[in-house]
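Support request, please re-run this one:
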Amino acid sequence: MAISQLEQAMATLRLGIAEMRNREEQLDALVSQFQTQLRRLPRQAVYGQTSLDSSLTAMGEIEERLEDAVANRRRLLEIKKTATLELEALELLKRVDEARSQLADLKKNGTTAGPAGPAGEDVESEVRRLEGFIAANSRQAEQAITERFRERTSERTNGGRSAG
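Re-run finished. Output below.
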C-alpha cells in the first residue's frame, strides 16, 4: 500500500471515529433523557398530573425508545471498536514503514561514515533497535491485518451461505 493510500485510509478512519464519538455523545444524552423521563412519570401519576393509563402508555413508549437507544449505542461501540483497531493496525504499519526508511538511510549513510568509533557504535545500536522494532511490529501488524482479512472473508462466506 502506497503511503498516500495509507494516509488516506487513516484520515478516513479518523473522520469516521470522530463522527462515531459525536453519535455516541448524542446517544448518551438520549439515554439520559429517557431515564430521567422514566423517573419522573410515576410521580406525575401519583400526584394526579397525568392519568394512570396515559402514564403507563408513556412509560412503555419511553422504555421502548430507551431500549432502542441502548441497543444503537452498543452497535455503534462495536463499529467504533472495529474502526479503532483498523486505525491502530494502519498506524503501526506506517511506523514500521517509517522505521524501514530510517534503517535504509542509516545503512546507506552510516556505514560509509568512516572508522568504527563512538559514532559508529551509535549507528550500529540504532540499526539494531530499528531492526528489532521492524521485526516485532511487522509481525504484530501482519497478525492484525490477517485477522481482519479472515474476519471479512468469513463474514462474506457465512453471509453467502445463509443467503443461498
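The mean pLDDT is 85. The longest helix spans residues 52-110.
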